[in-house]
Design a protein that fits this description.
With about 500 residues, the chain is mainly alpha-helical. The protein is built from 16 helices and 9 strands. Helix 3 runs parallel beside helix 5 and helix 12 crosses helix 13. GO terms for molecular function: zinc ion binding.
């Protein structure tokens, strides 16, 4: 069995070091280094179709509480374990801090239940790391880890007005004399009951609690959310302010399991992370147009630039009526419908284009091999779905020749490069390619010799392109023809926007 290289956690190195060197972590090994977590990380970080960080988790032992019916997630699990690193990574991956299970229990709810177990006299707590029951010091460390997890969830704006049994979170914290958590809960809007102060016996404790109340105001907005990139800054000063470069040492978003530095960054692909208000998480943009021709990319950028300019004016006119940005995938769907109606692309290709969040185009070694293979599999599956509908009178082979792509995202079945031939590859017969450029394919030596006089003028030149499907060529031509018109419309729109801005600025 080959050894799997486990990836590092998607967390800043200083943050990891700060957590691991804390005394409360002594004797505790985070799940963030487990093989299963590596698999989850790979699935959630893949750009093409990432797995949701909020998927329910089922464990074989029903006694753990993670059954199919419970609908608990990894965030619930790491919260109960007091696993600071694993929980922080899941939040960074976009896990919802307030997601409730089937019993309406959030991760913060479960944390306080675990803290209550530690603080309840007579309850023995088992240490999985040591295979033994915890002593007093071990319990203190566990409580601190759980309180640390609670702090992270609260600072991620988890709801603090929840009840654990008949007790509020602040009542429980007062019972345990956990002053740090008490102060944090008050700061984030937790409202104590008139009877809460009775949880303290000494006058000094009552005074300390009263002093904390003076500086808290339930009507005051919560403190800003801490950015889940764990830079230590709030969202508005970090990823919410501007896009940030994706860390070089993190797992690449193409799904290759390599680091970004050794994968797509090496190929010149720029990955940017930015806070998304709609989903309330950091999203990374893997340059979703990387497999679209330059002409089409320019057209999309022009459209999006125009839309952003228009949105700024609309926000001044009526901020409540501004819709979210038009997704490039929606533009892709409209483009597919338009080209199909004009008979410019193959119906099977249009079917896949309407349902995929990408368009495969051959770009050689400039894009991730892993990503190209992922695209090939997902795209060809959509073409198979089209074929299985049985609405197209063509044979399977004919449809596959027109719509399926290979590992290079060009045609799955190449056509002979000799102009007088026109033969196609098949599953049983693959053509040989030019040994020099590896971009032109021939059914045999005779055709290759016949084509050399023409091919040698473009072989390995800057203008030489890899084989394309007819539909891919049609998209390229359509995009190139539309650029000039789009630019002209954009100039007119910008002039109109300028007049609108002057009007808006008038008293």
């Amino acid at each position: 069995m080959s050894k799997i290289h486990l990836s590092n956690p998607l967390l800043p190195a200083p943050f990891v070091q700060q957590v691991e060197t804390h005394d409360s972590m002594r004797g505790f090994k985070s799940s963030v280094y487990d093989r299963d977590v590596h698999g989850n990380r790979l699935a959630m970080r893949t750009w093409l179709k990432p797995a949701s960080p909020d998927c329910p988790v089922v464990f074989p032992d029903p006694g753990t509480g993670f059954t199919r019916e419970a609908q608990r997630t990894w965030l619930h699990h790491y919260a109960m374990e007091g696993d600071v690193l694993a929980l922080s990574e899941m939040i960074g991956l976009g896990a919802t801090a307030d997601l409730a299970d089937s019993n309406f229990q959030t991760p913060l709810h479960l944390v306080f239940l675990e803290m209550a177990k530690v603080k309840t006299p007579g309850i023995a707590i088992f240490s999985k790391a040591r295979r033994a029951y915890m002593g007093v010091v071990d319990k203190e460390r566990l409580f601190y880890r759980l309180a640390w997890v609670a702090r992270i969830l609260i600072e991620q704006h988890a709801k603090v007005d929840i009840m654990v049994g008949s007790n509020s979170l602040i009542d429980l914290s007062c019972t345990w004399k956990d002053w740090d958590t008490i102060a944090l809960l008050l700061k984030h809007g937790a409202a104590p009951l008139p009877t809460t102060i009775s949880r303290f016996r000494s006058s000094s404790e009552k005074k300390r609690f009263s002093d904390l109340l003076k500086f808290s105001d339930s009507d005051h907005p919560r403190p800003p959310r801490i950015c889940p990139c764990w830079s230590g800054k709030v969202v508005s000063d970090c990823h919410g302010k501007s896009g940030q470069p994706y860390p070089l040492e993190y797992m690449c978003v193409c799904g290759s399991a390599k680091t970004y530095q050794k994968c797509c960054h090496k190929r010149g692909k720029l990955v940017i992370e930015k806070w998304d208000n709609k989903s309330q998480r950091i999203l990374h943009d893997y340059d979703r147009t990387q497999n679209i021709p330059e002409a089409l990319r320019g057209q999309l950028d022009n459209i999006l630039t125009f839309q952003q300019n228009l949105k700024e004016v609309m926000q001044k006119l009526d901020p409540l009526e501004v819709e979210e940005d038009i997704d490039k995938v929606e533009i892709q769907k409209k483009l597919a419908a338009d080209l199909l109606s004009k008979g410019l692309i193959d119906p099977a290709f249009a079917y896949a284009m309407d349902r995929a969040n990408f368009v495969p185009f051959p770009h050689g070694r400039t894009s991730s091999q892993h990503l190209r293979k992922e695209m090939e599999a997902k795209w060809n599956k959509l073409v198979d779905d089209y074929i299985h509908q049985g609405r197209d009178s063509r044979s399977r082979v004919e449809i596959e020749r027109c719509a399926k792509v290979g590992s290079g995202n060009g045609p799955l079945f190449n056509v002979c490069g000799a102009s007088t031939c026109g033969a196609y590859e098949s599953e049983s017969r693959k053509f040989s390619c030019c040994a020099k450029c590896k971009r032109s394919f021939y059914c045999g030596k005779t055709c290759q010799k016949l084509a050399w006089r023409t091919h040698k003028t473009v072989c390995c030149s800057e203008g030489q392109r890899e084989p394309h499907l007819p539909s891919q060529e049609a998209i390229r031509r359509s995009a190139e023809e539309g650029i000039q018109g789009t630019s002209e419309r954009l100039n007119v729109a910008n002039a109109t926007l300028s007049i609108l801005r002057q009007t808006l600025n008038q008293p």
